[in-house]
Amino acid sequence: MPAPISVIIPTLDSASSMEATLASLVAGVHAGLVREVIFADGGSRDDIHTLAEVSGARLIETARAGRGGQLKAGARIAKGDWYLFLHSDTELGGAWPMAVKAHLHNRDAAGYFRLRFDQTGPFPAMVASWANLRSRFFCMPYGDQGLLIHRDLYEAVGGYPDQPLMEDVAICRRLGRRLTRLSAVAVTSADRYVRDGWLRRGTRNIATLVLYLFGRDPERLRVFYRGD
Hints:
Blueprint: E1 5-11, H1 19-30, E2 34-41, H2 48-55, E3 58-61, H3 67-77, E4 82-85, E5 90-92, H4 96-103, E6 110-117, H5 122-138, E7 147-150, H6 151-156, H7 167-175, E8 179-188, H8 191-196, H9 198-213, H10 218-226
Parallel strand pairs: 1-2, 1-4, 2-3, 6-8
Antiparallel strand pairs: 4-7, 5-8
Helix pairs in contact: 9-10
């Protein structure tokens, strides 16, 4: 019987920063969980083709950059019964195969991981705590917490929308109480927070979420989110 999970990673000029992400998946390969890894690329100008060849990943290229559309394209070619959507700068903690195995009996629920940053200190801890509380009480984990979902449930809720921003919020709103936290950690990069400042980036993230929930167009929100 083939392994059950297709890991789908949206990429955009991220080949140089994916070593930890891919290394963390090896435990899932050894546990018989990972059937394939798919890079859904949005037009990279880096060495993503070489990385895909060396790592044994499948590479699909989308017509334009936009995480929602890239994830949607990756799911379209996936062969696994389960999809694990994972950001290219997110590393799964060592206990993740056991946590995922415990979830695979429940096709009617989608799983996500507890968030932690790759930086220490009060600000990383505070932002991660807010993300974990938001996920638990408002059923709204972001994409950097991963999403493990059976293909039937994914299709039942309409999959990811083809939009450049808030695609993770959109699918989680459809899933609602069918989301459950897995007993493992996703460690994600804090680079954007370090570059922009923890308070500034955190405030902008919250403002972007609020504007989206009030109906602001994701295309326009992308400019605001990036601070351009």
